[in-house]
Amino acid sequence: MQNVAILGSTGSIGRQALDVVRAHPDMFRLYGVSAHSSEAAFLDILLSERPQRAVFSRPLSTAVFGVEVSNGEQALLDLASDPKVDVVVMAISGIAALKPLLSALRAGKRVAIANKESLVCGGNLVKEVLQRGGGELLPVDSEQSALFQCLQNGRRDEVEKLILTASGGPFFRRPRAELKDITPAEAVKHPTWSMGRKISLDSATLMNKGLEIMEAARLFDFPGERIDVLIHPQSVVHSMVAYRDGTVMANLSCADMRLPIQYAMTWPERVPSPARPLKLWEHPDLAFYRPDMDRFPALKMAYACLKAGGGCPVVYNGANERAAALFFEGKLGFLEIEESVAYALDRFENRPMGDLDDILGADGEARRLVDEFYMTRSKV
After folding, report:
1. Residue-range definition of the domain harbouring residue 35
2. pTM strictly above 0.85
3. 266 with 240, same domain?
4. Which of 168, 197, 202, 235 is the most exposed place for a label (fewest CB within 10 A)?
5. How far apart (Å, rounded) are the C-alpha atoms in residues 167 and 169?
6. pLDDT for 211-233, tens place per residue?
7. What would the mean pLDDT of 100-111 be, rounded to a whole number?
């Protein structure tokens, strides 16, 4: 029996992680949960699941059904490193996951990580803490989980390429000139996945895939020139590994995040899943396209950031997070998300990221530069 803590329990990944725990009461016990802002959903979890520990971002004014509830950042770090926790599902979005990730890894936990931003920004710091703490880092992103599984079919020196697939988002076939006036409601209508608002937007801009390029480089220690992207609108093939003998190993399943979540929690074992089995005859037309780097500048910027290293990946992520927030507030246009990230990268003086303060400093600078872009644009 494994005690599980789900950090970010009210989001899309957190809710699906709860499904996995419920599906295997003989394997998992929900020990702890955290949430940032969805108070009603959080209280529903406490009422239905009765975990032993719970953390909310602020003090709660409502009775919490006998569950011990703490609040604030230190309480979150304590839950991530709790000696009674065996598996931490890291479902917190954005760079906010970096501190609890480091806390869990220092305590030697298995972390099923659905947060690419902390890996992109944390870089060598996450790697060092992982090695010192003796924990495990298992990917939950469907693409990274697919790569992880496909890489088990050969030796590292036999790998030619890692191939990430991307749905292309809702605007893959729409001319770029028509994207200028895209609304937030349109941008979050993902064609194949049911996800949160921010990641749905990132999929529409392909910023999400840019982050995944850097995430794959961090997770599997491959350079950017050996990581390719293919547009695959059906989202059946989740990623592939090309081997030097010409063989390509692919991971296929229905678009259901409960599969990679469960595999990260049960690895190296495979157990029955609550997800629907894939029926290939229902998907007769699987298509793949090479992305146009001029049409999708987020990819080009991601490869450049990975090559430059230092604080550039941090700025890519921080600028995108801030630009996404301004887009949802109606202050930036859809195409201006990419433009503001490029603006921040052009003005950032790159430097090594030695510690957490360096990373958080670069993140803050990125957000300030996006605000500067917005103010400059709004005056024109």
Report:
1. 2-139
2. yes
3. yes
4. 197
5. 5
6. 999 999 999 999 999 999 999 99
7. 98
